[in-house]
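Page 47, continued from p. 46.
Same chain as before, 438 aa.
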Amino acid sequence: MKPMTFKGKLTFVLSFVLASTFFIIGISFNSIMNNSILNNARDAIVDSRNIITSSHRMNQRLFVSTQNFLMTPDYESIDVGMMHSPHMLVLHRVMADVLEENELAPSNLIHELRINNELFYVNLIENPSNESQWIVLYISMSTLANLRDNLNLILFVIMAIMLVIGIVLIWFVSSSMTLPLTQLSAFATSVGKGNRKSDLNKYHEKELIVLHDSMNTMVSNLVEQEQASRHFFQNVSHELRTPLQIILAQLEAYQYDFVTKENTLNIITNQGERLKLLIDDLLVLSRLEAHNVDVIVESLDIRDVIEEISSTMHVLIEEKGLDLKYQFPNHPVILKMDSSSLTKVFSNLLTNAIRYSKSKIVWEVFDNAKTIEVKISNDGEMIPEDFKDKIFDRFQKGERGHIGIGLAIVKAVMEHYGGSIQVDSNPEVTSFKLIFKK
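Result:
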């Protein structure tokens, strides 16, 4: 079954509601009119019956709206001469025949009869003056019935016109509502097919304006991400190609006896390690951004982790003649986290500090009530203010760095574990501060 459009559903629902409303109005109107006709007829007949059967007729109303004629129990109308016109005499005979067909007898019941397309309400009573006669009290309600039928016709025509007008208006209103959605849907489809131009259509509804702005922002972000991705893969391909070219060039030199075997193996080993580290970092970053990280939570003393990582890089620190200092609390600072992820964060920050530091590096740990803060500072060059927001972007490259992926991994790990990282830089010192939630 083909799904119905939003415009079709809206038109159908509102049209159904409108038609149901008209239907209820019509039923209510006819119910009121029918009750009014019946009540008027009953009241008139009851008044006439009371006057006829009352022993104090002088105290009753002398005029009633009903008519009557005499009839025998054999359903023969009695002609009383000048009291009735020829037309009424014919009506009386026909009415008597109808009463006979329905086998109606004197009672307090009021009967509805249709005679020659006229509506009558009839009541039979015994003649108080002559037990061998019946009195037929009747009243014609054709005028009110015709009024009701005419009003029904007028009401039906009005409702039909209003229903048509309503459906047309609903269709146009729903079109004005769904047209922007159709345009935005087409825009989203074009974006999915590679179009990166912003939508220039103007909208007036607040919700559509918000959606339109969000989609344009999405397109802008996609453009930025695609540009950054191209830049990133260019850098990655360069970083991967460089050690490969060195390895191939060294092998070619060795093949023609231009270099020694020992020198060749050292270069291949170093460049192979460089390739391995770069590939590992790319895989870690990919898993973090996909939220696909195997986590083994441990209770770690941050002080021990920092000291262990620093010791593994002791040779690099001594080669540059750097002074490494620790400012830790005297008590254990316990953090529940995956050991490999925390080690990766501290390793990347220390590597970055060693690369840029001039003479010293300082590790600081602060044990707060709800957070644990770790700060690593160095006296390297100041980070330009307009570059602070970009250093954690995996597509950026520092002046002395290779591919700018180390700090991107730090940020990805911190966000994955609900933490954050801040950077502060001035001409004297540059600091990176990690904030962990306890």
